[in-house]
Amino acid sequence: MVQIGLHQGSALSSFLFNVVFDVLTEAVRENPPWCVLYADDVILLAKNKRALQRKFEHWREALESRALRISRNKTEYMTTDTDGDQKESIQMDGIKLKRVTSFKYLGSMLEPSGRLDKEIRHRIQSGWNNWKLTGVTCNRKVPVKLNGKIHKAVVMPAMMYALETAAMRKTEKRKLNVVETKMLRYKKQG
Fold it and tell me: What value does the mean pLDDT of the chain take?
């Protein structure tokens, strides 16, 4: 029986965490786009590595002074290298943090160039995974109309997640169209 706090998995847990985290980070938080918060995920943006290092240290100090810790294993950074500081790295307590060339945030792949190449590949893979998981895509006993509805309800949302507002190039749109056509043709042949 819980006497103080909430049961693990309670519907109020995430809400309570967000309220507390909001108060704890109020002093160091900046407006978007320089700071983006979602639950316990934080993205800090800066114009150069030195500014990012300072900002990161402010966050670390603010959180640790309130008995919260930043995970060294999960913390990573990405640069666009426009400042030419490729050798300099971001550190936490003298330990270099992992530098990545892309990372996943809220289900989307982010790249330094701002292009969508990895995101499109990721979305296509998600679409194929959902297509395979439906289990009815190649079954001739399933009516074509029902297959189309399943495709629209299960496959397309996975392929288009977070791309509705993305500035896609013609080549990226074409890749998605080619994959969708392959899926639909496979259903007819199956």
Answer: 85
Helix axes 170-189, 117-134, angle to 10 degrees: 10
Query: What are the DSSP E strand ranges found in the chain?
Result: 35-38, 41-44, 76-77, 91-92, 95-96, 98-99, 103-105, 108-110
Q: So what CATH class is 11-100?
A: alpha beta
Look at residues 58, 56, 102 and name the one whose alpha carbon lies nearest to residue 78: 102
Domain ranges of the chain: 11-100, 110-189
Report which DSSP code applies to 155: I
- Here the tokens at position 158 are 């996975």
| Rounded distance between C-alpha atoms, residue 54 and residue 74, angstroms | 19
**What does the pLDDT look like over 104-155, one tens digit per residue?**
888 888 898 888 999 999 999 999 999 988 877 777 788 888 888 988 999 9
